[in-house]
Amino acid sequence: MNRDHFxxxxxNLQGRGKTALGAVTGRARQQVEGAYDQAAxxxxxxxGEARDTVNDLRRDGERFxxxxxxxxxxxxxxxxxxxxxxADRGYxxxxxxQRRGRHYRGEAVRHGRAVAARADENxxxxxxxxxxxxxxxxxxxxPSR
Length: 145
Fold this sequence. Notes:
Largest sheet: none
Number of strands: 0
Keywords: Membrane, Plasmid, Transmembrane, Transmembrane helix
Transmembrane segments: 124-141
Order of helices and strands: HHH
Low-confidence stretches: none
Helix content: over 70%
Family: Belongs to the UPF0337 (CsbD) family.
Pfam family, one: CsbD
Oligomer: single chain
Distance between the termini: 107 Å
Domain CsbD-like: 4-56
Shape: rod-shaped
Radius of gyration: 49 Å
């Protein structure tokens, strides 16, 4: 309730009193003034209602803005956390891929050295295998007639 509610209600009651008193005493002017005060009081009361409604809507709007802003900040924080988690996972996967790559490279070097050592020990067999592989590859890749 605001000041316009109160003043409008008081003026309306005063107008009713004037109208009633004018009716009892037979004074038309007092009745008209009472009716005028009643109408003015009702208008002032309605203005007070409108002010309260506008203030309520403004308050609701501010609360909505605050809640929306808080929700937007929460969503932004959540998105940042998810982005960071994805980045951390990406770094972890990259580290794991490097670790595995080093491991497999080491295994390949070790196996390659073992094959080279075995080929060095068995030169005649190695030469025969290379010649057979070259012949087979040449035969497979020859132009067909």
